[in-house]
Write a structure and sequence with these properties.
The complex is a heterodimer of chains A (117) and B (108). Chain A has 117 residues and is mostly beta strands. Chain A is built from no helices and eleven strands. The chains are: A mainly beta (117), B mainly beta (108). At the A-B interface, β5, β9 and β10 of A face β5 and β10 of B.
């Protein structure tokens, strides 16, 4: 079955960096677009980045210039390099895969990123 | 950017009763609308896509309707395990993909 497992979250100071990973299994990873979605504590869901199966990339303005999405199809892995972190980046970060159009049928368990001094 | 607005913010329903959740888009999203259920400490779970198609293994008491700018998620006979926050998401005009702010369903 499809599984997505994130790792790499933690506590980081403002201005610091962190790299998240998402390891996929149960499907042909190289065939699919992958996304990152985050959820600040007690708040709603925010989609902010995707990478296509051909490495087309998109970021929303909230992370553009600070976050970098990438993938390694040989390792069935998705990454998110987060630099210049701010307090407002504090959130649970999910990797997700669509199942129909851009409805997300598969989600990881999430990894918490806390930006605080 | 399409803004998704959900109402009400909180819905309190007795077990066995019907729950009706609304989602409005700031412009037409055709039928490119999904609904998710999220319980505390868990990732969201896809319930409905294409506005009205149930995802695999989703109970038949969950149904979606609507098109254009007005959408509804109905839980026909609320069960205790349905207590959760429900989000809608449009995927018609993107990027960006956008979610509504959520409706919390409580068991009365």
């Amino acid at each position: 079955q499809v599984q997505l497992v994130e790792s790499g979250g933690g506590l980081v100071k403002p201005g610091g960096s962190l790299r998240l990973s998402c390891v996929a299994s149960g499907f042909t990873f190289s065939d699919y677009y992958m996304s990152w979605i985050r959820q600040a504590p007690g708040k709603g869901l925010e989609w902010f980045s995707y990478i296509s199966n051909r490495n087309t990339i998109y970021y929303t303005d909230s992370v553009k210039g600070r976050f970098t999405i990438s993938r390694d199809n040989a390792k069935n892995s998705l990454y998110l390099q987060m630099d210049s972190l701010r307090a407002e980046d504090t959130a649970v970060y999910y990797c997700a895969r669509e199942v129909s159009g851009w409805a997300f049928g598969y989600w990881g368990q999430g990894t918490l990123v806390t930006v605080s001094s | 950017e399409i803004v998704m607005t959900q109402s009400p913010a909180t819905l309190s329903v007795s077990p066995g009763e019907r729950a009706t959740l609304s989602c409005r888009a700031s412009q037409s999203v055709s039928s490119n609308l999904a609904w998710y259920q999220q319980k505390p400490g868990q990732a969201p779970r896809l319930l409905i896509y294409g506005a009205s198609t149930r995802a695999p293994d989703i109970p038949a008491r969950f149904s979606g309707s609507g098109s254009g700018t007005e959408f509804t998620l109905t839980i026909s006979s609320l069960q205790s395990e349905d207590s959760a926050v429900y989000y809608c998401q449009q995927y018609n005009n993107w990027p960006p993909l956008t979610f509504g702010g959520g409706t919390k369903v409580e068991i009365k």
